[in-house]
Amino acid sequence: MFAAAGKFKRTVMRIFCGSNLWPAGERKHSRGAWREMNSDHLEIPRQEKVILNNLLYGVDGGIGGGGNVALNAVGSRWGSGDVQTQFLIPVWNDLLSLVLCLPSILQVADFVVICDDGSNDGTSEYIEAVIAAKPRAKIRHLRSPRQMGWTLTRQVLDEYSDPSCLRVWADADDMIVPELWSNFLDGLSEDGCLPIGFYEVWGDLNHSTHWGLRGDPCHIALWPGNTSLKAWDREMGFTMPVYEGSGPSKVGPMCAFHMNGYKVDERLAFKGRRLQNFNRPGQGEKVGKLECVDSNRVHAEAMKVLFDNYSHRPAPMPTVLTEYLSTYIPSELRFMMTAEDRLHNNQVVGALAQARRNDFRSLVASTLR
Predict the structure, then answer these.
(1) Mapping DSSP to helix (H, G, I), strand (E, B) and coil, where does residue 176 land?
(2) For 287-301, how does the pLDDT look when each residue is reduced to its tens digit (9 = 90+)?
(3) Which among 10, 72, 222, 259 is least surrounded, fewest beta carbons within 10 Å?
(4) Are 180 and 254 a contacting pair, CB within 8 Å?
(5) Stretch 58-63: mean pLDDT, rounded?
């Protein structure tokens, strides 16, 4: 199947197609070109800002005042019977972000397929705890006996993709905002294939990155019947979608937070090691083991990812987004952005360790509602 993908025209978000989406001089590599589709400012789109302001401060006192704004209350025209939505999610040692993201996904998904690429941090155990707590949720949990790497994990998930559904290729760190989901579906119904529009959560709920509202080629959605996505493959070291013809030409409306930096130190340090290996022949897929085992050195590597990343710079999160996040993230799972506060953060690490000891019951109870 995937060998046949070479017969199709490879367009990785129109990077090599001469599209006028990207100014000249910004096509150094796939990610650099893709970033030109992002807004590079921190202003929230007006419609999304109005919805969130109404949610927080308007109807029945908003969330802070004990109000509960249902999805239909913000004007959704997408009822549960309109389209069936399938989420396809690869995971690997993503426990901290997954406990925030999976509950949000279950609010808008009809089906969820998760492929765990050999996690050892409790990720699979948490997924099983969610399945047990929500037996009506249609979650399919695939577990690899060995680490395959990002590309092969997505290829496995592709075998379970249902073209009759609205398919969302998400990651374990995509936190959906249900109140904005209908706006995204409006845009998706017109375009057929769109990247998810999101703000990064970069280290804690008070910080984003300088890109503002943006998208990523691996976080995409396809309308039922849209078969433009043909495979997942590697382009210059990155796992990227392969399209027949042209891929999407713009980022979809905001509907999510990308909890990209919201990870424990060990996971961030692995992320940094993966980035170092991207363009080395035969490497970049499997991160293996960290060379350093000392916690201070692991923390130092993690902080390089957050503060010395070549493509992301910390920026204040817009206030309305921070306030929304503060209503969603349990206090025991909140990070502080400074390197000192993150070092040996007993509050977060202790919460995850306690959850493992308790078969994740307390964590499921605090994040599923």
Answers:
(1) strand
(2) 445 455 677 888 888
(3) 72
(4) yes
(5) 54
| DSSP output for 101-156 | HHHHHHTT-SEEEEEE-S--SSHHHHHHHHHHH-TTS-EEEEE-SS---HHHHHHH
Q: Amino acid identity of 322? A: T
CA-based radius of gyration for the chain: 20
pTM above 0.90, yes or no: no
Tally of CA atoms within 13 A in the half-sphere of 126 that contains its CB: 33
H helix or E strand, kind and range, residue 354: helix 346-357
Cα–Cα distance for residue pair 237/207, rounded to 1 Å: 28
pLDDT of residue 305: 87
CB 156 within 8 A of CB 115: yes
Does the pLDDT at position 90 exceed 90?
A: yes
Rounded to 5 degrees, what angle do the CA atoms 289, 102, 100 make? 75
Q: By three-state DSSP, how is residue 8 classified?
A: coil
> Looking only at Cα atoms, what is the longest distance across the chain?
57
Count Cα neighbours of 349 within 13 Å in the Cβ-side half-sphere: 11
Structure confidence at residue 353 as a pLDDT band (50, 70, 90):
confident
Is residue 57 helix, strand or coil? Answer: helix
Does residue 72 surpass a pLDDT of 80? no
Distance CA 205, CA 259 (A): 9
- What domain range is 242 assigned to? 4-367
Q: Tokens for 23?
A: 């100014």
**Residue 350 — left, alpha, or beta (φ > 0 → left; ψ -120 to 50 → alpha)?**
alpha
* Mean per-residue pLDDT over the chain, rounded: 78
**141-169 burial: b if 16+ Cβ within 10 Å, else e:** ebebeebbbbbbbbbbbbeeeeeebbbbb
Pick from 45, 81, 32: nearest CA to 255: 45
Q: 3-state SS of 240-280? A: EEEECCCCCCCCCCEEEEECCCCCCHHHHHHHHHHHHHCCC
Domain total of the chain: 1
